[in-house]
Predict the structure.
Amino acid sequence: GDSVTQMEGPVTLSEEAFLTINCTYTATGYPSLFWYVQYPGEGLQLLLKATKADDKGSNKGFEATYRKETTSFHLEKGSVQVSDSAVYFCALTGAAGNKLTFGGGTRVLVKP
Amino acid sequence: GAGVSQSPSNKVTEKGKDVELRCDPISGHTALYWYRQRLGQGLEFLIYFQGNSAPDKSGLPSDRFSAERTGESVSTLTIQRTQQEDSAVYLCASSLNRGGEKLFFGSGTQLSVL
């Protein structure tokens, strides 16, 4: 079945550092790929998405590129802020397109 | 309402009791999902509704778990004879159409089984 694997956290960074969170997936067909974010005390919300190979999703300074050859969708941000402290989830919808399959989440803590 | 609403926000129950968790999706959203998030773990899919029917209930962990949706709106997740391993945050999400679209999540119900 479909699965998503992402790097374990917590990831602790200083403000303005570069952030990468690795995500790889297993799925049949051509899934759509997503990053969701859960800020402290809030519900999950969509950060960005990509629906086909080589697409780049971007939002709030974050980017991720759909790499079919490596089955990856790594999340990057060039200069993090304290407000980026959150748990980040990589996810996909498979061929049936009727549910999201999530990775285990990566907690990111940005220190001033 | 403006977002997905779940109630109660916290529920403490004794082992063996039944619990009902409620989800009010965003008005007009035809797809509704239930997920479970155990402490420190990722989201585990439970069930998906399209309208009032559930074409995918493959994630329900046992026959103690059931869910229904009425009026293409409110959904309830029922756990019978709760066990300690049922302790988790239960998250509800809705989307305008079926999966692949943007999901809107509620804040969840924290269930603690003593």
